[in-house]
Specification:
By secondary structure, the chain is α/β, with parallel strands linked by helices. It contains 4 helices and 3 strands. The chain has helices spanning 13-22, 60-66, 70-79, 93-109; strands at 28-31, 43-46, 82-84. The protein has a 3-stranded parallel β-sheet with strand order 1-2-3, with helices on one face.
Amino acid sequence: MVTGGEPMIAPEIVPLTERLRGLGWHITIETAGTVVQPVACDLMSISPKLANSTPNGRWAAQHDRLRIQPEVLLELMGRYPYQLKFVIEKPDDLDEVRALIGTLGRIAAA
């Protein structure tokens, strides 16, 4: 499992995954789904950040603006075997998950 703050922005993520592939390891990458890299990956564990993840303070507006990238999500989902996972804090978060899945379906169908 390659994880961290956001492994897809790590400068050496591509060569790291290629080396792991060369060792014959199963590679899962846990990502927020905001960046695409041509990594070696057996399972992309995509965890889009819901509104409940927006911090207070200086970076809140930028985080909220960038936390969901539908085109990137669809590219990752089309390129790799994947799973979607969400951090649910309250029942209303499920509405946001349903809306995101609906948006992804509409974009993919277009």
